[in-house]
Design brief:
mainly alpha, single chain
Length: about 120
């Protein structure tokens, strides 16, 4: 009787380990897919920052050519205020872009690790 109990217990442990391995494999596949999706999301956000940077670089150029006539009619302080506004946004957008690219890289690395690459 004791021998039968040990055999049954051993079979239950073996079956449980096989089931656990299959569940783990399914989970890693899903987690890897999730990491790749997050990576794509961060790449898209980084690309959106490119558009914001380009918009404000163009805004700086356009403002000077459209509104600056001379120092009497358009004081330099007004031009500097607009340049400072655009420069601050450009600087922040570049930082966000770098952060988004780092996040995307991190998620791609995690996905590769889970895929065994």
């Amino acid at each position: 009787m004791k021998k039968l109990s040990i055999i049954i217990f051993s079979l239950v442990i073996m079956i449980a380990s096989v089931v656990a391995q299959n569940v783990y494999a399914a989970e890693t596949s899903q987690v890897s897919t999730d990491h790749l999706a997050m990576s794509k999301s961060y790449e898209d956000k980084a690309a959106a920052q490119d558009a914001l940077i380009a918009e404000h670089e163009q805004m700086k150029k356009d403002y000077k050519s459209r509104f600056f006539i001379n120092e009497k009619l358009t004081p330099m302080a007004k031009l500097k205020k607009m340049n400072d506004h655009c420069d601050a946004i450009i600087k922040d957008a570049q930082k966000l872009k770098a952060d988004f690219n780092d996040f995307a890289k991190w998620h791609r690395l995690r996905a590769a690790e889970l895929q065994g690459k």
